[in-house]
Design goal:
Layout: H1 9-13, H2 16-37, H3 43-50, H4 58-71, H5 75-82, H6 84-104, H7 108-136, H8 142-170, H9 175-178, H10 180-194, H11 208-228, H12 235-258, H13 272-302, H14 307-313, H15 315-325, H16 328-355, H17 364-391, H18 398-431, H19 440-457, H20 470-473
Helix pairs in contact: 2-7, 2-8, 2-10, 4-7, 4-11, 4-18, 5-6, 5-7, 6-7, 6-10, 7-18, 8-14, 8-15, 8-17, 11-12, 11-18, 13-17, 13-18, 13-19, 15-17, 16-17, 16-19, 18-19
Length: 480
């Protein structure tokens, strides 16, 4: 391990800079996730600008999330090789510049290309910062730190739709991306001014074969899902992509298990709590990630609302998130990870199923209640899963666990959006009408499908011990 760049680095890492790192990571996490969801309510207007069907605009979301998943694995190596401040600052600069490019595009494919560049910058921001947080935070403070950096990931997908709806309704969707310019400049200044350029294991070799295989598997499989969810699916091309993705995925798994310094470290999967959070937890995140894509489309295309009104309704989910934050720690301490994840996971899946009962004639008050309850369950499950992920992971394995967790997190976000589009296509097929037309009944079926995905993920949670993650939650099995 290489020593910090200055003698005071270690002291600051455990002192006041700990809070600064948490705040910076939270801010960049918010900006990254906001850009992944803020365009949701702008999709219909963007589709008109590009001359495509609204459902085809899922490419603009999945291309961004896919790039995050592909490049996140090398974030740990880059931070070790070039230093935390260098990588973090460069990532913010690339992300901000790409945002400006997104705002100036005129076609769907050029927009997707700009989103890929934006994703490369985003892939380096949060994992590098979160790694610094995990290294500097003791176990007993992990829940608080994780809650803070998780909070933007919950807020951004909810704030994004109404903010995007407001900008889209009263201005142009292009200002959604221009908004990142001042935020990025402020973040870049803070990062360069206050972060230390600490490094660890600077001599670590870059695992090019592992990176290539993982990238190929992620790209082909997610793009295949994206094509399946579109209206003009090229089935021959999609079949080839699935085959290539499956083969490269198996090859990547075998390589990562044998390599001495793999691009993604798998050893943390031997820790039961981490493995469960990555397994069943990923299915939950897939089902939840489909909601920011489906809800705005249902409200606008299915119910006939404008973008701003559609976005305002989703604030009920934010209210649920905010309310649950007030009691998350006491609930976790009282009941423990296992009970909370199983019971609350079931409630979260049921809240998604309840969205299938909404219709254009449903009173706004009922819609708000359903979304609020969904926000409550979503917030608790999200925080519990993210905290459980690192509850029992040794410090020596924290870097690899962070990279793997971030990769799977972004993969599931991309899969969730694609799954939402596929669920909508399945609903259209079941109802036997043209894929160019979407009805409220189609969204009902789509929400039922994503609810089932979330429900299936709960099965993995039964394998947890009753006192799983107790050192972090403070829960003692047998004491109620």
């Amino acid at each position: 391990m290489q020593a910090p760049d200055s003698p005071s680095d270690a002291t600051r890492a455990h002192g006041s800079s700990g809070s600064l790192i948490v705040a910076l990571v939270a801010a960049t996490f918010f900006m990254e996730n906001l850009d992944g969801t803020i365009i949701a309510t702008a999709l219909p207007q963007m589709a008109r600008s590009f001359g495509v069907h609204p459902a085809d605009m899922s490419l603009g979301i999945t291309s961004y999330l896919l790039t995050l998943a592909v490049f996140i694995p090398i974030s740990g190596w880059a931070a070790d090789r070039f230093g935390l401040r260098t990588v973090f600052g460069s990532a913010i600069a690339v992300f901000t510049a790409a945002s400006v490019l997104c705002a100036t595009t005129g076609t769907l494919h050029s927009f997707a290309a700009a989103r890929v560049l934006q994703g490369i910058g985003g892939a380096m921001m949060v994992p590098v910062g979160r790694l610094a947080v995990l290294r500097a935070t003791p176990k007993d403070g992990l829940m608080r730190a994780i809650a803070i950096i998780t909070w933007p990931g919950l807020v951004a997908p909810v704030i994004g739709p109404p903010l995007g709806g407001f900008i889209t309704t009263y201005s142009s969707w292009r200002w959604i991306f221009y908004l990142n310019l001042p935020l990025g400049l402020i973040g870049l200044f803070v990062a360069l001014r206050y972060l230390d350029n600490t490094r660890e294991n600077a001599g670590r070799r870059f695992d090019l074969p592992g990176f290539a295989l993982c990238g190929l598997a992620c790209t082909t499989l997610l793009y295949a899902m994206e094509l399946i969810g579109r209206n003009d699916t090229p089935w021959t091309q999609t079949s080839v992509l699935v085959a290539v993705g499956a083969v490269s995925g198996v090859a990547a798994w075998l390589h990562l298990r044998r390599a001495k310094e793999p691009v993604v470290e798998l050893s943390a999967l031997k820790v039961k709590t981490f493995a469960v959070a990555m397994g069943g937890g990923s299915l939950f995140r897939i089902s939840i990630s489909a909601v920011p894509f489906l809800l705005p489309l249902m409200f606008q295309v299915g119910f006939g609302m404008d973008a701003f009104a559609s976005g305002l309704l989703t604030l009920a989910v934010f209210a649920g998130n905010l309310s649950m934050k007030l009691v998350t720690t006491p609930v976790m301490r009282r009941f423990g990870f296992r009970s909370v994840l199983i019971v609350n996971g079931t409630l979260a899946a049921l809240s998604l199923a309840a969205m299938s009962l909404l219709s254009p004639s449903t009173p706004k008050s009922v819609i708000v209640v359903v979304l609020f309850l969904s926000g409550l369950a979503r917030s608790l499950q999200f925080t519990a899963l993210n905290t459980l992920s690192f509850a029992d992971v040794p410090k020596a394995q924290m870097s690899g666990a962070s990279a793997l967790s971030s990769t799977l997190f972004q993969m599931t976000m991309g899969i969730g959006v694609a799954a939402g589009a596929i669920a909508l296509r399945i609903a259209q097929w079941l109802h036997g009408h043209d894929s160019q037309s979407v009805t409220p009944a189609d969204f009902s079926v789509a929400f039922l499908i994503v609810a089932v995905i979330g429900l299936v993920g709960i099965a993995d949670l039964f394998g947890l011990a009753r006192d799983a993650g107790a050192v972090v939650s403070g829960h003692r099995a047998g004491k109620r």
